[in-house]
Amino acid sequence: MKIGIAADHGGFALKEIIHELLKKQGYEVVDFGATILDDTDDYPDFVIPLAKAVALKEVERGIAICGSGVGASIAANKVSGVRAALISNYFSAHQGVEDDDMNLICLGGRVTGFASAEELVLTFLKATFIGAERHLRRLQKIKELEINRDKNGEIMERE
Ligand code: RB5
Fold first, then answer.
1. Mutational test site, ligand 1, from 43, 70, 112, max ligand atoms within 8 Å of CB
2. Closest residue CA from atom 5 of ligand 1
3. Which of 1, 72, 110, 156 has the smallest count of CB within 10 Å of its CB?
4. pLDDT per 10-residue tile (average), the chain, 159 residues
């Protein structure tokens, strides 16, 4: 399985640990940066290229890490075809894939301990989408929103 990973300075230390873990577990890892710890870098610069690679299926799943995991999650979910979530518990790490076909996990490098983060990532990667009719129905509704948004260039937010 080919996995993409990205982090800003808030997630950099955890990214390095997860990267090593995945290599040891036999995963092929594509690292979208940051490549150095730079306190002035911005998470969208790493998370958006990763999210696009997930959407284009250049990597099978993605892992995005910032300080809290919030910014990474917001950025990743702007890319159509990406189903990202900030995960901090075991249940959501597998159920998010099983029911919602989550293809990108977001973690908070400053809030989730290294050992917990490793377990969450491995749980996420081993989980598979169940694909029951109800799951497909729900995802179709999200896909329709994305199709309309991409077609119309709709602005959903109020200024
Ligand atoms: C960067 O200092 C921090 O704001 C960022 O990593 C993240 O927590 C955003 O959600």
1. 43
2. 67
3. 156
4. 98 98 98 98 98 98 98 98 98 98 98 98 98 98 94 66
Q: Whose CA is nearest to atom 2 of ligand 1?
A: 10
**Total of domains in the chain:** 1
The boundaries of the domain holding residue 81 are 2-130
Helix axis angle for 12-24 and 114-126, nearest 10°, is 50
Per the CB < 8 A criterion, the answer to whether 10 and 67 are in contact is yes
Atom of ligand 1 nearest to the CA of 71: 10
| Residue 141 included in any domain | no
Angle formed by the axes of helices 114-126 and 90-100, nearest 10°: 20
Q: Determine if ligand 1 sits within 6 Å of the CB of residue 8.
A: yes
Enter the pTM of the model. Answer: 0.96
- CA 8 to ligand 1 centroid distance, Å: 8
The reported pLDDT for the residue numbered 130 is 98
Instruction: Note the pLDDT of residue 63.
Output: 99
The answer to whether position 137 is within a domain reads no
Residue 101 lies in a domain: yes
Q: Is 61 domain-assigned? A: yes
Give the CATH number, domain containing residue 111: 3.40.1400.10
